[in-house]
Amino acid sequence: MYHKINFFKFKKLIPIALIFLVANQAQAEEFSVNYSVSSQVNETITGTVTDQDGSKIEGAKVTVLETGATAMTDASGNFSISASIGQTLSISYDGYGSQTMKISSTSISVSLKSKKEATSIEEVTLVGYGSQKKSDLTGAISQLKAENFKEGMNISVDNLMQGKVAGVRIVQTSGEPGAGVNVSIRGIGSIRSGSTPLFVVDGVPLSNDAVSAQSPNVGLGNTSAKNPLNFLNTSDIESITVLKDASAAAIYGARGSNGVVLVTTKRGKKGEPMFTYDTYLGFSSVIKKLDLMAADEYRAAGINKLYDHGGNTDWQDEIYRNAVSSNHSVSFSRSTDTGNYFASLSHLDQDGIVLNSGFKRTTARLNAEESFFDNKRLKIKLNLTASDIKETGIPNGGNAGSDGQVIIHALMANPTRSVYDETGGYTNFNMNAHYNPLYLLSIYNDKTNTFRVLGNTEATLRILPGLNYKFNLGIDKTMSERNTTIYPNVTDRTPKGMYVQANLDSYNVLLEHYLTYDFNLNRHNFNVLGGFSYQKFKSTGTYFGVKDIAAQGAGIAPELNPGYSGTAFVPGAGYAQENELQSYFGRVNYNFDKKYLLTASLRADGSTRFGKNNKYGYFPSVAVGWTVSNENFLKDSQLINELKLRGSWGQTGNQEVPNKITQASSSLTQAAGYYLYDNLNLINGVSINRTVNPDLKWEVVEQTNIGADFSLLKNKLYGSLEYYHKTTKDPILNIPSRPLSPTSTVWKNVDAKIVNKGFEFSLGSEIIKNENFTWNFDVNGATVNNVVKDLPVSAIYSGEVSGPGLSGVTANIYKNGYEAGSFYMYNYLGVDANGKYIYEDINADGRIDQNDRKIFEGAIPNFTFGINSYMKYKKFDFAFSFIGQTGGYLVNNTALDLNINNLASDRNVLKNFYDSGANFTNQPQLSSLYLEKSDFLRLNNVRLGYTFDINQLKFLRSINLYVSAQNLFTITSYTGYDPLVDTNKQVGGNQSLGIDYTTYPSAKTFILGATVKF
């Protein structure tokens, strides 16, 4: 039958082909007897395709039925095709009914009608191990599509969610390109096990462990971990789905307590093959400068005359630069009757705004899907991405103290000093723990190369109608090498130089089998899922170091030949970690008459991380929904188009704890040694390092969610409302052990609770939609109230503060009745007549000591929000987004290092400290003087674009040119660089929250870009 059909079409094409050939070789009048030239000669037919509201449709397929010639509409809905008057056009577009029409003129217009009036409730949304119509969802799920995150320069997928999803907070640990990002969903739920959600990329759950080699300490501290998600090319991402409540996330069991983020990459779409080239050029500068004393102000402050060095230097201008970034990405996509294909190649080169810092990434991706056998019975899908990342770092370790941070050296540097001395070399400050920041950058070299491959193969077999078996095999492999050098120098930080090479190999393999069965019994609709999952994680690391190396520029660089000079001091050290997760899961979705919904799931997870008495944890959930708008009394409502009420309860787990903590650990040490023989030689004894706890189990998060989804006024106003109550139980802590235990601390679950509760809303409106102008606007917001309960110890401390004389001082406290990570410090009241600081005497004993510290509100903002707008007028497009927060606080540890006492020690100070009248002799103390509100409103992104339709060139569909800006302005009272920051200052593994210590600043960026479609 296949050949007959094609032969039939071929026969119909014969006369048309003959006419075309003959008409080009003879006079038309010679054939007037047999053919009508006016109706058969091909002409250029142009037209426009719109929807029923008059909006232009891009990607509609136009086919001449008689010849099979095809064309696709461009971004303005226009097409051009060769055909003859009287022939028939077929116009089709996914989601719309196809339309045929006779060609009566060379210019036509077509209006397509949707197969079913499109509403948000009919959209398909990803869920764990499958997808559902939005109308059938019972959990709190938010989905972003590619069009939601076009604007801006974003290295990592988590940045794309900023301000777009209610209840999701994105906080940078550093503004350095590729640096880590803290993502929290619905508050902070753990003291030490982390609050990062589980990321699942194309069906493969990723580990939240570091995938690039850790920064060694060569005397300047350890820099913060890089973002494990920075290997993905954000242009390849099709959608991001956030599972927020337990009903949605419980199918991921032991790793769903902090929420789940599903990332899906692009595939070939229906229509003609598409070739796309995306490029941009970005220009970045520091988001703001701190208000330090200038050279003239410094001299006029009454400082010691020895501290006037005769120069005039703005040290912030010296270390910060106008950075240039470029990105090039090409992609090809195609869809056939049996499958689809997507391939891309990209290169990103981003300079950091601090000298010597940068990020380069090259990625390649191939996504393919093909169907086999009768009626596509078997589907094979392949997702493969590879990335090569090269990073150059700076000495800015969060644990280095004031003497190891290049940024704090620049901020503290006396403005009367010069960068260079009379000989043209760097000026030597000749001070302990304080150096010329440009010199420090010149003697430090830190390069990391990370190669990562993530891929998976899925096979789906339709066993019976509605019954499908799926197999998923995934592999995540990373190899990373980091070379860190500090050359011999004139400072007191490793003056003879040091080189360290660190290597990391990580391997993650996933194996899954599951069945899905969809069936209907009259008005009863069922979807049943059951499966098995096994995942193994393995990481190994090696490192070695050489000290007393050759001077910079002498001989061969250590990273090229570590054996050229120096003495090995770390001879081939290494480590290995391995853990496994075995899971069984099931879920039932039930729908009666498209009105009443029920979802129930259960997952059992077994992990090698936990004790033999609690290898398995069980995580159930249940949710119900009522689609009120499908009831008879609302079916004809002109006000309410969609209304669904839903509620859920469930439990999820958190296994983000160190490996092996349930097992005993011991070592041979001299401290535990004894004298066995008469020769008095000391024999090493056994020292117990860790107490066994076979009862250790998962932290459990229990969550209740009540929500409503709605669409009003013919879908002009739509959104959702949520109330959630989320409680973390059985938190895992390393707490003091009982008397006579072999170690002073033990890992165990305690009876404490961390409660997060609040409201979320998402509201949107298609304010205007007509042929020439479209305007969509949405706003989202979330509240959170966080409190610690039933902690079995009086308090847990974290958040180590850096600064002279502040060793061992902490800023965070976990205590019953207070927010997690609240601040604990002296209460600053002002200055007295002599300029001395005044602190509140809490216990009224006439002196200020540790007993006078007070608990203040913490870092978690009680309200976060985002505002997003998109407009399109003819060929112009304009979009902007705002983000903001209120109710949180930050400890400005940078300001603490720039305290008034610096004027007495040849260092600079924040101008407002001098203006306050404080005495130079005041010693720095952690107090509320350095506690500031982190409230802000930021224009996060703005973009203006124009699309050119290239009708003259058939191979070129459209060109979109745009200008964009990020972090254009921020309204805030915070005096640091950025109120949206969190430096990792943890103590004993307990999370620190809301500390800003000379963090690499954020950048303000302007972008010129283009998207070309072929």
Structure characterization notes:
By secondary structure, the protein is mainly β. The chain has 3 domains: 69 residues, Carboxypeptidase-like, regulatory domain (Immunoglobulin-like); 846 residues, Beta Barrel (Maltoporin, Chain A); 34 residues, no CATH class. Helices cover 6% and strands 48% of the residues. The chain is built from 9 helices and 52 strands. The strands form 11 sheets. The chain has a 22-stranded antiparallel beta barrel. Strands 10-15-16-13-14 form a 5-stranded mixed beta sheet. Strands 3-2-5-6 form a 4-stranded antiparallel beta sheet, with no helix packed on it. The radius of gyration is 32 Å and the shape is globular. The relative contact order is 0.12.
Q: What key attributes describe this structure?
A:
1014 residues, mainly beta, Immunoglobulin-like, Maltoporin, Chain A, 3 domains, 22-stranded antiparallel beta barrel, five-stranded mixed β-sheet, transmembrane beta strand, transmembrane, Plug_dom, TonB-dep_OMP_SusC/RagA
Helix content: under 10%
Strand content: over 45%
Level-2 CATH architecture of the largest domain: Beta Barrel
**Anisotropy-based shape:** globular
The assembly state of the depicted protein chains is single chain
Q: N-to-C terminal Cα separation, in Å?
A: 35 Å
Content-based structural category: mainly beta
Full CATH superfamily name of the largest domain: TonB-dependent receptor, beta-barrel domain
Instruction: Give the count of structural domains.
Output: 3
Low-confidence stretches are: 1-39, 116-121
Q: How would a textbook summarize the main sheet?
A: 22 strands, antiparallel, barrel
CATH topology of the largest domain, anyone?
Answer: Maltoporin, Chain A
Tell me, rounded to a whole number, the average pLDDT: 86
CA-based gyration radius: 32 Å
* Name of the top-level CATH class of the largest domain: Mainly Beta
Number of helices, counting only DSSP H or I runs of 4 residues or more: 9
Number of strands: 52
